[in-house]
Design brief:
Blueprint: H1 2-17, H2 23-31, H3 36-45, H4 53-59, H5 65-78, H6 81-100, H7 102-105, H8 108-122, H9 132-138, H10 146-171, H11 176-185, H12 191-197, H13 202-214, H14 228-243, H15 247-252, H16 254-275, H17 277-283
Helix pairs in contact: 1-10, 1-16, 2-6, 3-5, 3-6, 4-5, 8-10, 8-16, 9-10, 10-14, 16-17
């Protein structure tokens, strides 16, 4: 069931992830006076309210803390969490309608998928201990329209999993930048993309790589390459993350998870094609 849980999360992830690449979201945050990064951090952390920047930094594990602090300080000096949350939901609605089309948004298939995923999400509504970013999202009101219910439910489950992943990284003794480097070493995303999008300087990156080599995570090869021990440790991080994220899907059961995957796959693919084509390249 653990594999089915992971596959279900992965299949539906574009339904949540699209919000970070949708021009509708960028424009909505821009209208509030926010840059891309300010909009990104504010929209994901707005459920906390206007907490100190250090609280937001604590939950965005592999980003450069300076980038988080500067972005969130600017955001809450410019606008407020309620406005950002409203802008995000409106952008999600607009994007889903544009990419999927009216017929899909109003279809019984999307309504059924929304019902299943909401049921899964609601089984862990009170499972917030040690999951701060999930807890903030879980306290937000549910939307009414099925396509937004589907988006909100997947957002909840993504943050539920994300908090579990942070716990696994901490247990493995990895700092934020070290976690990012081990992600790069898996080969799924380039090191340069991960470094620049998370705001790390080259000197910080190289120093962290050297530290991981000294601790037998990485070989001395020019390309980021795991040692046997490093490979095993990274696999254990993923195993623990999967195990601690499976509960919502286990509650649905195997057959309904497979039904959910089947229902959502066309929508996820359409969103990936329109906004995240690199996801499809990874799967091919």
């Amino acid at each position: 069931m653990i594999k089915t849980a992971r596959d279900t999360w992965r299949t539906l992830e574009p339904i949540h992830g699209m919000i970070y690449f949708a021009p509708e979201a960028t424009e909505a945050y821009k209208a509030l006076g926010l840059s891309y990064h300010a909009g990104y951090f504010a929209s994901r952390s707005a459920g906390f309210g206007t907490v100190p920047a250090s609280v937001v930094t604590a939950t965005f594990y592999n980003f450069n803390p300076r980038l988080v602090t500067d972005s969130i300080t600017t955001a809450w000096a410019t606008t407020d969490p309620a406005s950002v949350l409203a802008a995000r939901r409106t952008a999600a609605d607009q994007t889903l309608r544009r990419v999927l089309g009216h017929d899909a948004v109003e279809s019984p298939e999307i309504a059924r998928a929304a019902t299943l995923l909401r049921e899964a999400a609601e089984t862990v509504a009170d499972d917030v201990t040690g999951r701060p970013l999930y807890a903030a999202h879980a306290a937000l009101p549910w939307p009414d329209e099925p396509h937004l219910v589907l988006w909100h439910a997947q957002t909840l489950l993504r943050e539920y999993r994300g908090d579990a992943h942070v716990a696994a990284l901490l247990t493995a003794g990895l700092s934020g930048i070290e976690a990012l480097i081990t992600h790069a070493a898996t080969g799924t995303v380039s090191a340069e993309t991960l470094r620049t999008t998370r705001g790390w300087a080259e000197v910080d990156w190289h120093n962290a790589v050297d530290g991981l080599r000294e601790r037998d995570w990485l070989t001395d090869a020019p390309e980021l390459t795991f040692t046997a021990a490093g490979q095993a440790r990274r696999a254990e991080i993923e195993r623990v993350t999967d195990e601690n994220s499976a509960k919502p899907y286990v509650s649905l059961g195997e057959s309904r998870c497979l039904e959910l995957q089947s229902l959502a796959k066309p929508y996820s693919r359409a969103l990936a094609e329109a906004l995240m084509p690199w996801l499809l390249a990874r799967k091919s």
